[in-house]
Design goal:
Distance between the termini: 35 Å
Radius of gyration: 17 Å
Strand content: under 5%
Largest sheet: none
Structural class: mainly alpha
Shape: flat
Number of helices: 7
Length: about 140
């Protein structure tokens, strides 16, 4: 456990909590929350190693790519375009103040996992596109 990184994350956690409690500057809260999540992920090395190990499996690769694409689309719609105050699936906007925070957090973690498992993708891509699909759905085959 790396305490220095956790101390670095403390101001980001505090700012995020205050902004979410008072429902002000939701985009800034999303960014500071994403930084806080990455710092917490970097603090616990065993947890990070477990996530990378799970993401390196075949289906884990597909999940990480899907999360990355979904997170990018949701970040564009919720944060960049400002649709975070509109209703989501007929819920009359309930919980809309947490959506940018969740979107940026998922996108940040998926991006870090994608970078961590990039060598597996490169190894499969060198052998052709069919091997990439085979690596995703049948790891170790």
């Amino acid at each position: 456990m790396n305490i220095d990184v956790l101390v670095f994350a403390a101001p980001f956690i505090a700012v995020t909590a205050l902004l979410l409690i008072y429902r002000k500057a939701l985009r800034i809260a999303a960014v500071t929350g994403g930084i806080a999540i990455l710092c917490i992920l970097a603090t616990f090395t065993t947890f990070r190693a477990m996530l990378v190990h799970l993401a390196s499996s075949g289906i884990g690769m597909a999940v990480v790519v899907a999360l990355l694409v979904a997170g990018a689309i949701a970040a564009y719609l919720d944060v960049a375009r400002g649709n975070h105050k509109k209703a989501l699936m007929g819920r009359n906007g309930a919980g809309h103040h947490l959506r940018p925070f969740v979107v940026v957090g998922v996108f940040a973690v998926a991006a870090v996992l994608m970078v961590a498992i990039l060598p597996q993708y490169n190894a499969a891509a060198r052998h052709g596109g069919g091997t990439v699909v085979q690596t995703i759905f049948h790891p170790g085959a």
